[in-house]
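Suppose you are handed only these lines of text.
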Amino acid sequence: MKINPFELERYFAKYEFAARYLLSCSDCEAVTMAELLELADPETRQLWEKLALGYTDSWGHPLLRQAISEIYQNIDAAQVLVAVPEEGIFLLMNALLAPGDHIICMVPGYQSLYEVAQSIGCEVSAWQPIEEQGWHFDVTQLETLLKPNTRLIVINFPHNPTGYVPSRDDFEELIKFARQHNLYIFSDEMYRFLEIDPNTILPAACELYDQAFSLFGLSKSFGLPGLRIGWIASKNQAILGRISRLKDYTTICASAPSEILAIIAVRQRQHIIAKQLKRIRHNLTVLDKFFAEYTDCINWQRPRGGSICFPRLLIPQNADEFCKDLVHDAQIMLVPSNLFKFGSQHVRIGFGRENLPTVLARFADYLSQRFR
Ligand SMILES: Cc1ncc(COP(=O)(O)O)c(C=O)c1O
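From them, the structure of the protein bound to pyridoxal-5'-phosphate can be written out as follows.
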């Protein structure tokens, strides 16, 4: 198998633990072990204390799958397969696609959502947004991207990197389109429940459509990326079975301690996510002030959900060069838009971390010194 390097991950590998100030992370503030264990109920505390470090059930711990299924309407534990989130993308694409298939994928986007399909020998068409309309992805455009061999639409709401969330009507139109043309949907919902306005939370795609696969996990909304726990939920159990057989060639099963900690987290999801969302809302007010003050340097479309936004640089330098200078001169890491296959005029700013106000202030100083 030949696959291009994952540019974003390579970039993080270079800078994440070398740069002092991270301003592009997509995950929320990490929950500590002590905080999480505080939230254990008597059953999960016992599971934790008596845990033997053997192999685990390949589909995921039964109590974990049960707790996960309760996040959804009309999805039961048998319709949930536990996998590392990134692994879920890799396995699902390999289970669904064959060389010569065509897929439609949102661009800009998280690279593996189209790169894995390309490595299989699929053709990829980019579904692109309209920046000036708050990064609106127009569902009526999908018709123009359709081909006789289209098999799959890949979506990701709240969207990495723009923070876009469609209206309920648009989302239902999209599902209707997939149903009419007999297409699978892969719905990456890693930032679900981080919608800024709770009235805009969409149903999971797997709740609305039998041929949809919803990916979710603990890395973003929960602030638990170190557990490496995610899952795919779908009513299509035949394909889930195919994914589980491929998983025998990747991780086989999840880490035993991670699964127990994940049961605690999923059972306490309301509490954990509410805390993350509170921080995000606060950080957004800090960003509002920053963008109002720096209109000569940078311009944003305020995100509707998630922990990231994708502002446009208005300075006389491209994003790639600017980010190199920034990390070199001020130790601040920002991700340029070429890593999302989207020109070189945007950068991704993450606002899920506690230190956002401090790092943003340093970034503001840097802009002032260099461009004013
Ligand atoms: C949209 C999206 N999907 C999937 C993932 C993969 O999650 P993980 O890194 O926890 O495997 C990420 C991580 O950045 C993401 O942004």
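What can we learn from it? The pocket of pyridoxal-5'-phosphate is lined by residues 26, 84-86, 110, 156, 160, 188, 190, 217, 219, 225 (CB under 6 Å). The longest strand covers residues 150-156.
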